[in-house]
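anyone seen this seq b4? input:
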Amino acid sequence: MVHSGNYSFTESELHKIKEAGIPVSFDFSDDSTEEYYEKTAPYVTYAFCSFDGTDEEAEEHLKKLTSMGPELAMASRGAKGCILYDGEKFFAQEAAPLEKVKDTLGAGDSLIASFLTGFIGRTKAGMDKETAIRESLKEAAAFAAGICGMEGAFGYGKKYE
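predicted toks r here
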């Protein structure tokens, strides 16, 4: 699998990767335009984005995104959890409980990495798609919450000499 995103500058190569039979995971940024989605999404297998709107708006966005080509599309929503669409069914996952948030930087990337690792591993092992999605979403939410409980880059920099 190849993972990329808006600012990785791989858009011109995505068609080659897909033609080679390699799945593409892509993290669309908040400033992705309709034109950008239309140009990029046809070459993407697993699409990810963050989304601040209502559940209904998120679902419409995911439907539109999968209609452009991706097999799965997920909208991460911070404390609201995430919604995934597989082209047929929506899967909602609540954010995992967390006693104290220290830093949210990396939570979305952690959610994506954990989900993909779990989902691909489970489906390769023969698990049915729906169960693999549900278990992987739950695991990914817990992993992302754990990242939020760790001190990270916001205000905890170190001076190097």
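The first strand starts at residue 2 and ends at 5. The chain has five helices and six strands. kinda curious what u guys think
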